[in-house]
């Protein structure tokens, strides 16, 4: 009956909590948003089995873009990069899953879209390194730094585990 079903469901919720996970910061850049690729990109992460923990549209202030890319501040393209990221709304997200930092980078593809494999987001959707549609953290440490930078106020960040998890993870 309903009670047994509820018990089974809650057992799955409890069991799902045991899975090891990590988090990554993913951002659809302004070109990806303007070109209408938000749905397709989110869909690729969902289909892979990654779990969406936060999502917002955001008009990035220059200071945030500069902080995000501070390791590249000596590069000749740094000014253009900051202007590009601030040129329109981005979609900022936290995704969670096993090895999600590396796994997301594989879904995204190489930095230069001319070198990213077909089937990857950049390989399928982009041609220029300065318009490469999406960002994904390059290490667990960068991910935690970027999540703090973009979601430091915790607004919209939800800790939840899909009830389907035991059918995705063993
Ligand atoms: P990734 O985004 O794949 O981690 P990087 O951290 O090396 O790559 O670079 C950050 C972003 O800077 C790239 O995604 C791209 O938007 C931009 N970028 C990198 N290299 C160049 C370049 N040679 N010319 C213009 N923009 C670049």
TrEMBL record:
ATP binds at residues 29, 77, 105, 111, 122, 132. Its cofactor is Mg(2+). Keywords: ATP-binding, Kinase, Nucleotide-binding, Transferase. The active site is at residue 135. CDD domains: NDPk_I. GO terms for molecular function: ATP binding; nucleoside diphosphate kinase activity. The keyword RNA-binding does not apply. InterPro entries: NDK-like_dom, NDK-like_dom_sf, Nucleoside_diP_kinase, Nucleoside_diP_kinase_AS. SMART domains: NDK. It catalyses: a 2'-deoxyribonucleoside 5'-diphosphate + ATP = a 2'-deoxyribonucleoside 5'-triphosphate + ADP; a ribonucleoside 5'-diphosphate + ATP = a ribonucleoside 5'-triphosphate + ADP. Pfam families: NDK. Its EC number is 2.7.4.6. This is Nucleoside diphosphate kinase. It comes from Ostreococcus tauri (Marine green alga).
């Amino acid at each position: 009956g309903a009670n047994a079903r509820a018990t089974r469901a809650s057992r799955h919720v409890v069991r799902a909590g045991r899975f090891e996970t990590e988090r990554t910061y993913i951002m659809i850049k302004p070109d990806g948003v303007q070109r209408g690729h938000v749905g397709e990109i989110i869909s690729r992460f969902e289909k892979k089995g990654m779990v969406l923990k936060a999502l917002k549209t955001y008009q990035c202030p220059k200071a945030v873009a500069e902080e995000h890319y501070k390791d590249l501040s000596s590069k000749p393209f740094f000014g253009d990069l900051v202007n590009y990221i601030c040129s329109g709304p981005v979609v900022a997200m936290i995704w969670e899953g096993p090895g999600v930092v590396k796994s997301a980078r594989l879904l995204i593809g190489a930095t230069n879209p001319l070198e990213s494999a077909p089937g990857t987001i950049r390989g399928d959707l982009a041609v220029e390194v300065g318009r490469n549609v999406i960002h994904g953290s390059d290490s667990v440490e960068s991910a935690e730094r970027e999540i703090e930078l973009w979601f430091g106020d915790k607004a919209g960040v939800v800790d939840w585990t899909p009830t389907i998890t035991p059918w995705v993870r063993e």
